[in-house]
Design a protein that fits this description.
By secondary structure, this protein is mostly helical. The chain has five helices and two strands; from the N terminus they run H-E-H-H-E-H-H. Helix content is 47%, strand content 3%. The protein has a two-stranded antiparallel sheet with strand order 1-2. The longest helix has 32 residues, at 77-108.
Amino acid sequence: MNEQSVSVVSLTVREFLTLRHLPGRLSAWQTATLLGMDKTHLPVLMAARLLKPLGNPPANAPKYFARDCVLGLASNERWLARASNALVDHWATHNKRKSSGANQFLELIPQPPPNKKSEPAARHKK
């Protein structure tokens, strides 16, 4: 029986997680899968210096991560808590910036003056 070579790139998440031997160099989606996160979370973790890619890749290059390092992080409860907090902080800042931008736009629109309750006319003393 001939063994067929399987490309790690074409695997589904289930197939990837059931591999006997994981590759030494993991892509972004493989790293996110092992960490139980979404691929879009990795740039946030890298910016927070909680995750470091292999080598010194340019900003627009694909990032790869060391298997043993990722598996160590995936089993480290303290690191997972720090990563979760970094994601929460990132999205809180993102949403605050987004909502404050909308408020700044509303400030540019002329608003009518607030209604003042009319004061009763002063009574004349005789």
